[in-house]
Design goal:
Blueprint lengths: L1 H13 L26 E2 L1 E3 L31 H5 L5 E2 L4 E2 L4 E12 L3 H15 L3 E2 L1 E3 L2 E2 L2 E4 H4 L9 E4 L2 E2 L1 E4 L20 E4 L2 E10 L8 E11 L30 E14 L10 H4 L9 H40 L13 E5 L4 E5 L1 H17 L2
Length: 383
């Protein structure tokens, strides 16, 4: 029970959610029934991208992906500030009950003669090779990616099966000798040697359960799952085609081997209704995957170590101040009260003496060390 609770707290931090799970449900309804008791707009937030293969995390805008016209940061809690979350809104338009099939999002063009464009492509390729992952949020829940763990890790056994992760990859790559890495192991079409593929399309499936009277149309969201795909859309305008089996995956290279590299982003949204699930148990399917979820333990260790050393140096400064104050006041005290002087290694631990109704501390160096060390330990426990 306690291990499951600790795992939930850790996951709520790594999943980049807004609040403690199971706190305040939000009711959603179709646009025709929207009112003060329910809303139709479903906000999709994106967080910074990170990788278990790197200590560095980058903001969403760093990857030259589709950005909204008006970027804003939602209010963050203390946990998000401590873990350095950088949450912003996204350009994905989601309305409850409104499905979208292969919707164009934005287009990015990279010219071979543009040095800044080449730098963006180079950064994108290196990030894909390091297996950077997206972290999205819908209704204070992490958008999950469910995949076959055995295929993902290149195993032939079926001991794990399908597991869900709180992030999904930016892309994948295949080595020169034809070894598919990370998510490329799952997709049969992503096997070309010495290739880097970008996931420029996502299929989002939102599961909800009805609440209250059936005629109200109010629902609560249970889960949001995404399936990333790599599609080379037609080059004509903003046309996108997500279901043509003849289309090849989107391969990106550096340097750009032609005058222009065009990347079109698209998405699809579908809704599913479930009557057998409850909003209070919507974290269960994520918790069952914790044993196979990659938690960036080094990230937490480095954060703790940084705070530990900051506390240590802060208390060292306090210790130096104690000794300086002791050395400055000891001659005056021994001159006025020679019979009450403190020895260098002994004497009374701390005496309060007053000449003009103002207390003066007379402390030995040993006692100062103990006092300052106790202050350091107490501050360390509060880190």
């Amino acid at each position: 029970m306690w291990s499951r609770l600790v795992a939930l707290v850790v996951l709520s931090s790594t999943a980049h959610s807004f609040y403690l799970p199971a706190y305040a449900p939000v009711h959603y309804c179709p646009p025709s029934k929207e009112g003060k008791h329910c809303q139709s707009r479903i906000d999709v937030f994106v967080n910074r991208l990170s990788s278990i293969n790197s200590l560095l995390a980058f903001d969403f805008a760093k990857f030259d992906l589709c950005m909204p016209e008006d970027v804003y940061h939602p209010r963050e809690n203390l946990g998000q500030v401590v873990f350095g979350d950088r949450i912003i809104n996204s350009p994905y338009g989601v309305t409850f009950g409104v499905s979208k099939k292969c919707t164009f999002l934005c287009k990015k063009e990279y010219a071979a003669a543009d040095s800044s464009a080449l730098a963006k492509i180079d950064f994108l390729v290196n990030s894909i090779k390091k297996n950077y992952n997206h972290y999205w949020i819908i209704d204070n829940m992490p958008v999950t990616w469910c995949a076959d763990v055995d295929s993902l890790h290149g195993q032939d056994s079926t001991s794990f099966g399908v597991q869900c992760f709180t992030g999904f990859p930016l892309g994948c790559h295949v080595t020169e000798d034809g070894q598919a890495k990370d998510a490329c192991r799952i997709y049969e079409t992503l096997k070309k040697p010495d290739s880097v593929f970008l996931f420029n399309h996502v299929d989002i499936v939102i599961t909800h359960t009805p609440v209250g009277l059936s005629e109200d149309g109010n629902s609560q969201l249970i889960s949001a799952k995404v399936t990333p795909r790599s599609i080379k859309h037609p080059d004509v305008g903003n046309t996108v085609d997500c279901w043509n089996p003849q289309l090849s995956p989107l391969e990106i290279k550096h340097p750009v081997d032609k005058e222009h590299l065009v990347v079109k982003y698209s998405y699809s949204i579908d809704f599913k209704e479930r009557h057998d699930l409850k909003w209070s148990s919507r974290w269960d399917y994520i918790l069952t995957s914790i044993s196979n979820t990659s938690i960036h333990w080094l990230r937490y260790y480095s954060a703790f170590a940084a705070r530990w050393w900051l506390s240590y140096f802060s208390q060292c400064s306090s210790l130096v101040f104690c000794f300086k104050h002791y050395a400055a006041t000891l001659p005056a005290i021994t001159k006025v009260f020679p019979e009450m002087s403190c020895g260098m290694m002994g004497g009374s631990p701390c005496r309060l003496m007053s000449s003009v109704h103002q207390p003066i501390k007379c402390c030995s160096p040993v006692w100062l060390v103990l006092v300052c060390r106790s202050q350091w330990l107490s501050s360390l426990l509060l880190v």
